[in-house]
Amino acid sequence: MEAVSGTAFVVATILKTLVFFVLLLLGVALATYMERKVAGFMQDRSGPNRVGPLGILQVMADGLKFILKEEVTPGAAHKKFFVLAPALALFPATVLFGVIPLGSPLPTPWGRVDMIVADVPVGFLYVLAIASLAVYGVVMAGWASNSKYSFLGGLRGSAQMISYEIGLAMSLVPVLMLAGNVRMPVLVSMQQSFGAGPATYGMWFILPLLVAAFFFVVSGLAETNRMPFDLPEAEAEIVGGYHTEYSSMKFGMFFLGEYFHLITTAALITVFFLGGWDIPFWSGDNVRVLADGTVVGEPTWWKTILTLLAFTAKTVLLVAFFMFVRWTIPRFRYDQLMDLGWKVFIPALMAYIMFMAVAIYALDSAGVEVGLAFSAALFGINLLLALFLLFLVDRGRLVKGATAKTRKTPRAAAAAAAGAEGD
Question: Per the domain annotation, does 58 fall within a domain?
Fold first, then answer.
């Protein structure tokens, strides 16, 4: 079935844009409710339970509070940039969601409708380009407020986000080496399993690229400014970070932007490493999108619904994982945060990319065809690398604790003891 064209394409794109945006807003509302319920569970309390059944209407009450509260603009603020910053913080995550394929194509009487707002040929590069714009909202908010607390939070945020953008991009290079294409639906098709046909890897990329997935998840946490990487806020140190001077709906837009980024990051992890809309252990949903845009398989409406539900389930589980991490791992010190990004992530990813390039070339040279055997070999290699990375490389030496500088080496302790004896 050919894709829709002409007027039908324009109408379908407008409808998809509206539906996806409404779904994203609904997802943000439910994510805020889930966050508070998870926090209550982790802290042995009930969470929201007074407004509506099970506290579900608390989200609406919070939204009304943001809209109705008095809006205060500092007298010394740069007003144009002060107003523009919240929009810049919200914009990137919203636009990024448009290139994420949420399900298999939907057949209609007018042609095939792809479950993606904009299937751009450079989807992967588009993700990296738009994601890098989020830092401008943080920097502008900190500078335009004309407040020392906000400015310090903005500087921290810009340094952190720029540092981990490098790790975020480098962790996706192995994905490109395996897929050989930058279109998002093609990345999903390459991960379909169980009878998906030739030229697929037979398993999700999280297995043959286990180390890359780990680096991407951690970098994604840092990019969304969530625990343990919420140093731009750090309420105990700098009051409220780059949005200290914001109130009413301007503050609410930063709040929305954080959850937009959270959901978008979870959706990107699903596409790059968890098979996208692919349903595990079942070949009935396999509708492949090839590099030239042609579709292999028979799209049906029930496959579209099932794949949409599968994609949603994976994304929700990842969002819940991020929330559990927030209430489990304490905040890094700022020097630890920057050391991790520049001294650990970048060198480790450079070595990993070179190692994976050699491994893929060796498997190709050995005549191993793309498929389960190819993926299993890469999974074994990544498992060994992950064990080496986690249990041998770090062990308290690269990301040091607070007492590292006061801790004496055996040689220094012996010298100190010899000096004491001489006295």
Answer: no
